[in-house]
Amino acid sequence: MDKTIYLDNAATTFPKPETVYKKMDETNRNGCVNAGRGGYHLARQATALIDDTKKRIIELVSLVDSSKVVFTPSVTIAMNQILQGIPWKTGDVLYVTPFEHNAVARTAALCSKKYGIEIVEIPLDINTLSIDIEMLKMMFIQKQPRCICINHVSNVLGTIQPYEEIATEAKRYNAITILDAAQSLGLIDIDLNRSNIDFLAFAGHKTLYGPFGVGGFIINSETELMEVIVGGTGSDSLKLDMPKQIPGRYESSSPNIVAIAGLNEALKWRKDVTDVLEKEQNLTKYLIAKLAEIPEVKVYLPENLENHVGIVSFNVQGYKSEDIGMILDMDFGIAVRTGYHCAPYIHKWIKDEEYAGTVRVSVSYFNTMRDIDEFIEAVNSILDDK
Prior knowledge:
The protein is of the alpha/beta class and 386 residues long. 36% of the residues lie in helices and 15% in strands. Strand 5 and strand 6 (130-131) form a beta hairpin. The longest helix has 20 residues, at 41-60.
């Protein structure tokens, strides 16, 4: 095998744009200093890089105040800071969608144990694989929401959820609204200026095409979060309390300037390359059409493919999902993801227990139709050898 055909982009997009690698190497060699902790030229330069990156992030959601962008080492830590930062009261109700990643699901479970809150899963329309809005309205009447987490794009099914409609309903009860945009920011248009979303969490290494090591959240609300992680910030160092101002209040420890430099370059690339979504949609539709030609394959898709992008889960009759993944890797050099994908709720809805989860194929801008053809040839070859 000369190369690996990488089809696990929902985990992390790979490869990255070439300029991202070059910028990270340059920063590691010439500018890898501690931003915000010194008054010398290199430190000021690092701070300016962080500020510029935040401005590029905030532009993606049609806001202007980049001080409302908080950088964290990952979207998981961002979700912990948001959910654990809410001043919960015993009996508060936190609603979650069936699509939540464990970055949300496990953090919510921890909050339930610590603060005595109730976790309620929003029902799904199994035909559309979308949230049942009418049922949601009835549930809100019976149990008023204190907070709701909305997964924008499912990392298992690729389904796009109507976050604005869901958030609007939640705001009728003054609930805190959180959008998990790990699989969508930079790929799908998001306008926080016109939405009822209070907090948006993002991952730098997924649809933003940046590196591991930087994620974060955007604050679009007057809701004040408690500090969850504290430490050095480079300011007010004689005080044992965290700074009151945002983002410093939520940004302790040294920023990962190398990862931020990579993200900055990825955001520049993303602004110049305007057909990312179109290419991913074309690849996805081609993949779905080819899988539909294989009778032994079961694909998990919504009725309306316009509410779907980039990610396709399927199973093969007579095989566990992990067996398909192992054969694709060892015999064909094709990388896919198998199992339950760190998303504990959704699998009971699609009833994939007999397969031990799903085989997940997820594409990126750098995949080709030839990649899909070789993948389909491999699946057919597995069935021919059965």
